[in-house]
Hints:
Layout: H1 10-27, H2 34-41, H3 45-52, H4 55-75, H5 83-100, H6 102-109, H7 120-128, H8 131-142, H9 151-170, H10 180-192
Organism: Actinoplanes nipponensis
Protein name: TetR family transcriptional regulator
Keywords: DNA-binding, Transcription, Transcription regulation
Amino acid sequence: MEPVPAVNGPDLTARLVDEAARLLLEHGPAGLSLRKLAASVGVSTMPVYTLFGDKQGLLAAMHREGFRRLGAALGAVPRTDDPLADVIALGVAYRRAALASPHLYGLMFGRMAPEFSPAADDRAAADATYQPLVEAVARCQRAGVFTGDEPHRIALHLWAVSHGMVNLELNGQLPDVGAPEEAYLEALGYAGMPFLS
């Protein structure tokens, strides 16, 4: 007989969050409930209700976990003496994080659950994952690699291209232009060209 997982164990929480995201993607908001989630994972409803409280709590946990994973992936990118290479490395880490948690990505950046609205603290934590890109662009500007001294507009442009490419790939809508990773890197390169000094 399998041991009962700890109610507050991180492994169980991660399993529940990932399975909830899968259920949401496959069945929509109406197909996601705490009871269905418990049945799908093979646990009683008690740990699910203990961890999340209700459906809104579950959606909030999914949103937080998605951005926690993204923040960890971006935070793991080492800072080097080449600021442009660092911008590219952040873009690669962004794509990898999205591909590693595609079900969560839809909730983080889409309207998969229209009834869900993240709390102010959760929105702030999500916004913080954007800062490494802004800082890397600012380093490029200080080094004379990018023009200007206002990094936010350039960062937004680069993120929009990255986000768009990732969405196309996750939704199976990327045109047949070769290997997806190569197409992604090429798009990032083209996105940065207008800003090169």
